[in-house]
Amino acid sequence: MAVLLSRMKGMLFLLFLPCFCSGQPASPPLRFSIFLDPSNMVYLRWDHDEQELMTFELQVHTTGWVAFGFSHHGELPGSDIVIGGVFPNGSIYFSVS
């Protein structure tokens, strides 16, 4: 699942943005999935195509924001993080760091 950061930043913006918008066409089915917590409140789905382009969908019961990290070693220090959410006025924010 290793993806170069420069390639990943562009992909994540394109892939996560439709998750926040309504009225988007249905995305193709994702073959792999897992709950990431024991309370089943964080659900990750993913897949890849023939060119190894990764597609992620993160479903989270949240109070308005979510962060998702990628690393080669499975820990927060040195990871690449995606943060997104909805402000109280309904506007959407999205950031990759």
UniProtKB/TrEMBL annotation:
Domain named DOMON is located at 40-97
**InterPro entries noted in UniProt:** DBH-like, DOH_DOMON, DOMON_domain
User: What does the record give under GO molecular function?
Assistant: copper ion binding; dopamine beta-monooxygenase activity
GO cellular component term of the entry, any: extracellular space
From which residue to which does the signal peptide run?
A: 1-23
Q: Which GO terms describe its biological process?
A: dopamine catabolic process; norepinephrine biosynthetic process; octopamine biosynthetic process
UniProt keyword Signal, yes or no:
yes
- Which keywords accompany this UniProt record? Signal
- Protein name (Swiss-Prot/TrEMBL): MOXD2 protein
Instruction: Give the encoding gene's name.
Output: Moxd2_1
